[in-house]
Specification:
Order of helices and strands: EEEHEHEHEHEEEHHEH
Number of helices: 7
CATH architecture: Alpha-Beta Complex
Distance between the termini: 34 Å
Shape: globular
Strand content: 15-25%
CATH superfamily: Spore Coat Polysaccharide Biosynthesis Protein SpsA, Chain A
CATH class: Alpha Beta
CATH topology: Spore Coat Polysaccharide Biosynthesis Protein SpsA, Chain A
């Protein structure tokens, strides 16, 4: 069983608001991420937010696999949300897939490809790659959960991926669109 943790608690300082709530065509950015995850083989989705009332007001997704989690320490950076989400997943999960709440074009096909590789290998880390470079989302096997819980700094899981690069499996993905994120107002307007 694979659980997903969607990291949606960090505020975009340069936008003055929660970037994951910004509308993208007809839906908020976060809603697009959640719909992609819920359309996949993921067994549960923990969505980590800093303001539950606001998230529920903007994001219209109902699914019994979706669990909302408030990270009151969201200003502590992305690692605090990763750790909160990791503590919240089902104790029977074999792995956790961390999804960025600001990557609205993530699709179930990519997530399912990562899960298939995870289930058919013993690699402790499975990640997609574009042009030979590892990208998000990254799936970690249970054996690395203790290391994830010790993460500090801004680099998050990227440092753990680099440390275990020789044991990680990359799934080549020909399209760059799933990795596009909304970091700035210009990104949002362009999309």
């Amino acid at each position: 069983m694979v659980s997903a943790v969607v990291l949606a608690a960090v505020r975009a300082e340069n936008m003055g608001e929660q970037k994951v709530r910004l509308p993208l065509r007809d839906k908020p950015v976060l809603q697009r991420v959640l719909e992609g995850a819920l359309a996949s083989k993921i067994r549960e989705v923990i969505c980590v937010v800093s303001d539950l009332a606001s998230a529920r007001r903007h994001v219209k997704v109902e699914d019994e696999r979706l669990i909302w989690l408030v990270n009151y320490r969201a200003d502590g950076g992305p690692n605090s949300s990763m750790i909160a989400g990791l503590w919240a997943i089902d104790p029977n999960s074999d792995g956790v897939l961390f999804l960025a709440g600001d990557q609205p074009f993530i699709r179930s096909e990519l997530i399912d490809a990562l899960i298939d590789r995870f289930e058919n290998s013993s690699a402790p880390i499975v990640a997609p790659s574009f042009m030979g470079e590892a990208r998000n989302p990254v799936l970690f096997r249970r054996e690395l959960f203790p290391d994830l819980l010790k993460l500090t700094g801004d680099r998050g899981a990227r440092a753990l991926l680099e440390k275990n690069q020789d044991k990680a499996e990359l799934v080549p993905w020909a399209e760059e669109i799933p990795y596009v994120d909304v970091d700035t107002r210009a990104d949002h307007e362009r999309l």
